[in-house]
Amino acid sequence: MNKKQIEDLLKKVPEIEELAKAFFQKVQVKYSPTGGGSVVVIGFSDYSWVEPSGDTLNTQLELIDKYEDWYSQTSQIISNIMPSRKPDLVDLYEKNKDIIELKEQIWSQDKSKFENNLLRNLGKQKSMLSSTLSMINIKPKEGKEEKKGDNNIESNNYGQPGLDISMYVDLKSQMTILSQQYSRIESDIKDLAQKIEGIGRITINNLNQNTAKTGNISISNENLVKWVKPDLDDELKKLKEELQSKDVEGSDKEIIEDLIETVLKEKNPKLEWLKDKISKIKYWGNKAGLLIGRLKELADAIGITEN
């Protein structure tokens, strides 16, 4: 690990910062009210990120590529020279990764918080990298001869020899190979997912049949919602049609319609949010005298118990 290599990495930081600023200027936030009429939903944001596409997606991918490359090299340096700071570096990386991939929930139209957090975390990582410059030239312990040369890296502050440049190049090559292998695996997973989708989704009926044969099946909340949502949407559309032919009080009718539209518009709802909405639809539906027998079955599938 020589001084020039560290200095080159430090010079790349402003480019990453500019890409981050450009990305958050382009990425959009949409406002989708989760409640309608007198219905108020607490703990669920009305704002969400718009899936990047076109120029915004290109900027995001370039930011990911350059940041990942910079982090990989910086991580190797920190591991060799300041191993005690490696956990801090990794923690900041995980936070930045979630920010760049828009995994952090947004609660308003203001995107500045996410941009500032990303730049602040990157600044801390840069400071760690910069501090290694004062450590790579520390002389080795007395009695041990220091070997120098074009292909050697000076000892670190722990008295341990650094990596030989040839070894570093070899590690870099292995990282490139692993990256290519990961891309191929990712492609295979996508192909497999498409084939599984072609087989057909799991319906509530065959899920119940399988449960009867095998006993309780452990299913993640995410998959449970994914499987139930199509059937649930179909049933809610039927319920909405029935509502039009019923003589229902105006305010009650408005509440039910708003709840149904809210669920239909939400493509990837959280389980607890969905439970709350369906419980309310059941309550108001029963009050209005609607036929909700099938809805009760779907409600039971996602764990809503009768009061």
Roughly what percent helix?
Answer: 55-70%
* Count of individual beta strands: 2
Whole-angstrom Rg: 28 Å
For the sheet with most strands, the description reads: 2 strands, antiparallel
Q: Determine the strand fraction and express it as a percent band.
A: under 5%
Unreliable spans: 37-41, 139-163, 198-204
Oligomer: single chain
Provide the residue-averaged pLDDT: 76
**Structural class by sheet pairing and helices:** mainly alpha
Q: How do the strands line up in the largest sheet?
A: 1-2
Short description:
By secondary structure, the protein is mainly α.
Explain what this protein looks like in three dimensions.
This protein has helices spanning 3-26, 54-81, 86-100, 112-131, 165-199, 204-214, 221-245, 250-265, 271-288, 293-301; strands at 29-31, 47-49. The protein is mainly α and 307 residues long. It has a two-stranded antiparallel ribbon. It is elongated and about 85 Å long. The relative contact order is 0.10. Residues 37-41, 139-163 and 198-204 have low confidence and may be disordered.
